[in-house]
Amino acid sequence: MSFNRIVFREPLVEGGEREGSLIRVLPPEPTKQKPKQWRPRGPFRFLDLPFELREEVLKHLLVLDDTVDLHPDNCRKLAPRLSLFTTNWQLHDEATRVFYGRNTFRIYPTHDRFFFDKEVLLSRLPSSYRHALTSLELRLGPGWTKPPKCWAVNDTMGFKDCTAVRRLRIFVELDPSQDGFKGFRVDTNFYTRFSQSLLHGLLSRMPSISTVEFDAYPSIRKSSELMGALMEEVEEAGKVVAWGKERDWDADQEPEDFDFNALHQRLAALSIRHATAEESQPPFALRQPDQPLHAIETHA
């Protein structure tokens, strides 16, 4: 134990008496000690952390940038992350709330391998996982000429268990009602009626949805027939309409209508001229096996 050293001075005063006065306090002399070397005490217990810190760690691991969908790469990219669920029951419950509550899940598959499967992603999930879902996505455009039979709303898909879903994201890839699809579509309003009916069924089966967010590719306009029918259905259901970031609806003006009739007339006016034998001859003569390179003649 060390003490501060106190230094006094005794100046002479009138009468020959000395008066003591404190002038300064000196710090104790430092003692040189070797820094202690850190040594691990064994494996770190993750569950010893507070719940808030554990949740932040789980977010970094389980919250994805892309929408969760049926995809062949899930076994390689997604399955290793979900192995955390098998650690113990406590970690399983905490990871369930993060993974299923903070990611967006696609209702109908869009990959070719699962596009015509009878079981969609929701019907493959246990009921306890469907109860934890908060955000779903409906992607419109794939199969616009003949939608698969699995793209329907029925009791086998487990919509009644999705009681915590608050947001439905609708991404429109294309609108077949535009003039560019003339000659390829079934009729002008076929896919519009199909999409509107699909949205009506989803909103009626999941009344917990409060917000419908629209997003699309740049070619989709708010004033198109498909977008108008979808927004009308959302407004009738009393839901809040939001706009996604990928389309950037408010940043620029809507794209101008493309003149598809002028394009068709231009293509019809073009004639394909068959090349003659002389025109189809290569720009250089083929070399014979015993012919040197300098003997090859090129055509002008």
Helix and strand topology:
Blueprint: E1 5-9, E2 21-26, H1 51-62, H2 74-77, H3 79-82, H4 89-102, E3 105-106, H5 121-124, H6 127-130, E4 135-140, E5 167-172, H7 190-205, E6 211-216, H8 225-236, E7 240-243, H9 260-269
Parallel strand pairs: 3-4, 4-5, 5-6, 6-7
Antiparallel strand pairs: 1-2
What does this structure look like?
This protein has 300 residues and is α/β, with parallel strands linked by helices. The protein has nine helices and seven strands. A five-stranded parallel beta sheet has the order 3-4-5-6-7. It has a two-stranded antiparallel ribbon with strand order 1-2. Helix 1 (51-62) crosses helix 4 and helix 7 (190-205) packs parallel to helix 8. The radius of gyration is 37 Å and the shape is elongated.
In brief:
This protein is α/β, with parallel strands linked by helices and 300 residues long. It has helices at 51-62, 74-77, 79-82, 89-102, 121-124, 127-130, 190-205, 225-236, 260-269; strands spanning 5-9, 21-26, 105-106, 135-140, 167-172, 211-216, 240-243. It contains 9 helices and 7 strands.
Uncertain residue ranges: 271-289, 291-300
Q: Globular, elongated, flat, extended or rod-shaped: what is the shape? A: elongated
Q: How can the largest sheet be summarized?
A: 5 strands, parallel
Hey, roughly how much beta strand do the residues contain? 5-15%
The helicity comes to 25-40%
Structural class: alpha/beta
N-to-C order of helices and strands: EEHHHHEHHEEHEHEH
Distance between the termini: 104 Å
SS elements, strand count: 7
Strand order of the largest sheet: 3-4-5-6-7
- C-alpha Rg (nearest Å): 37 Å
If you average the pLDDT, what whole number results?
81
Count of separate DSSP helical elements: 9
